[in-house]
Design brief:
Radius of gyration of chain A: 19 Å
Low-confidence stretches of chain A: 9-21, 178-183
Distance between the termini of chain A: 40 Å
Order of helices and strands of chain B: HHHHHH
Strand content of chain B: under 5%
Low-confidence stretches of chain B: 14-19
Mean pLDDT of chain B: 87
Structural class of chain A: alpha/beta
Shape of chain B: globular
Mean pLDDT of chain A: 84
Number of strands of chain A: 6
Largest sheet of chain B: none
Oligomer: heterodimer
Radius of gyration of chain B: 15 Å
Chain lengths: ~220, ~110
C-alpha cells in the first residue's frame, strides 16, 4: 500500500508537467468539430496492434469516464460491444468496418470514436521495466463522415525513473514487481492517464460537450 | 490507484479549464464494464455494486454516469429478470435522450 501511495504522489508531482497547462503547442484546428459538435459519442472496441489479449477491453473500461466528464453522452461501451457481437460482428475489426450510416441507424449516435492501440504492456530488462500504453484516436461525425478531431494518447512508467545508483534501480524493479502483482494490470492506470491527457488538454483535446457546465 | 491518478489529473485539468467537480458519481461502473467484457465478474455481484452506486447517488444528490442504467439493464437481462431490465433501459432513455434509438431497439426485443 505504501508503494502505491508513493507512485500516486510521484504522478501528482509530474501531473502539471505532463498536462502542460502553461505552455501549449499550437492549437488544434477545430473548425469542422465546431460545425458538427456532437452530443453523443459511440466508442467502438479498439483495434489492437500491441497483441496484448486484454488490452482492447481494459482500455474500453477506462474511456467512458473522461469522455462523459468532458460533457458528452457516452453509449454503454460493454453493451454496444455485446450487441454487435450478437449481430454477427465478433471482433473490433468487423465493428470498425461497419458503415457510419449503419451505426447511426442502430445506435442513433452523433459521432463515433475509432481507436487503435499501438503499445500496451510492460517490457522487462535486467534491472528495470517500462510499462507503456499508446493509442491513436479519431472522432468522426456519423452523419457526414467528416473527421471532427484526431489525437493520440501515451503514458509511460519506468520502474527505475529518477534513480541513478544501482541499488535504487534494483529497489525500483522490485517495487514494480510488487505493483504488478498487487494491481491486476498496471497498464490500466496508465491508460487512464493517457486518456485524460488526450481528451482534456486545452487546445489539443476534445471540445467541451453539451453536459459540461459553462464556466462563469 | 488508477482512480486516484484519474482524479488527480482531472483536478489538474479542471484547474486549467473549468468546473472543479466531477459531473457524475462513478462508483463501480467502469470496473463492471471490465468485469462484463472479460467475463471475470458475476452478473449478480455487479448488479449489487451498481444498485449501491445508484442508491448512493440518489441519497447524495449526485448524478449517475451515462450508460450505467443501460449496463445495469443488461445485467438484469442475463440474470433472467427482463422486467427490471426493461425498467433500467427506460431509465437510461429518460436520463439521456441521446440513448433513445438504441434503448428502443433493446426494449423492442423485450416487449414485442
Amino acid at each position: 500500500v505504501r508503494a502505491l501511495g508513493r507512485v500516486a504522489r510521484a504522478a501528482l508531482a509530474l501531473g502539471p508537467l505532463a498536462l502542460g497547462c502553461a505552455s501549449e503547442p499550437e492549437s488544434y484546428d477545430y473548425s469542422t468539430y465546431v460545425a458538427h459538435l456532437p452530443r453523443s459519442i459511440l466508442v467502438l472496441p479498439p483495434l489492437d496492434l500491441s497483441l496484448e489479449v486484454e488490452a482492447p477491453y481494459r482500455w474500453l473500461s477506462t474511456i467512458t469516464y473522461p469522455l462523459a466528464e468532458r460533457g458528452y453522452y457516452v453509449f454503454p461501451v460493454a453493451l454496444v460491444d455485446l450487441y454487435m457481437k450478437e449481430n454477427g460482428l465478433p471482433t473490433p475489426h468487423e465493428m470498425h468496418d461497419v458503415p457510419l450510416a449503419k451505426l447511426a441507424e442502430i445506435f442513433g449516435c452523433d459521432a463515433v470514436l475509432y481507436v487503435t492501440i499501438t503499445e500496451w504492456g510492460t517490457s522487462y530488462r535486467v534491472i528495470s521495466s517500462d510499462t507503456t500504453v499508446a493509442f491513436d484516436a479519431r472522432l468522426v461525425d456519423a452523419a457526414t463522415g467528416l473527421e471532427l478531431w484526431s489525437g493520440s494518447g501515451q503514458a509511460v512508467e519506468s520502474s527505475s525513473s529518477g534513480s541513478s545508483d544501482i541499488f535504487s534501480m534494483l529497489a525500483g524493479a522490485v517495487t514494480q514487481q510488487i505493483l504488478s502483482t498487487t494491481i491486476a494490470d498496471p497498464s490500466t492506470g496508465l491508460a487512464r492517464q493517457a486518456n485524460a491527457r488526450m481528451i482534456w488538454t486545452e487546445g489539443q483535446g476534445l471540445l467541451p460537450g453539451p453536459y459540461l457546465p459553462v464556466p462563469e | 490507484v488508477s482512480r486516484i491518478l484519474g482524479l488527480a489529473l482531472l483536478a489538474l485539468a479542471a484547474s486549467c479549464a473549468s468546473g472543479p467537480e466531477e459531473l457524475y458519481l462513478w462508483g463501480s461502473y467502469e470496473e463492471c464494464v471490465w468485469g462484463t467484457c472479460s467475463g471475470e465478474a458475476a452478473a449478480a455481484e455487479e448488479i449489487r455494486l451498481l444498485a449501491e452506486d445508484v442508491e448512493r447517488a440518489r441519497s447524495e444528490g449526485q448524478k449517475d454516469p451515462p450508460g450505467l442504467h443501460a449496463h445495469l439493464g443488461y445485467l438484469y437481462l442475463v440474470t433472467g429478470n427482463p422486467e427490471s431490465a426493461a425498467s433500467e433501459f427506460r431509465t437510461e432513455k429518460e436520463l439521456w435522450p441521446e440513448s433513445a434509438v438504441f434503448m428502443d431497439r433493446l426494449l423492442e426485443k423485450l416487449e414485442p
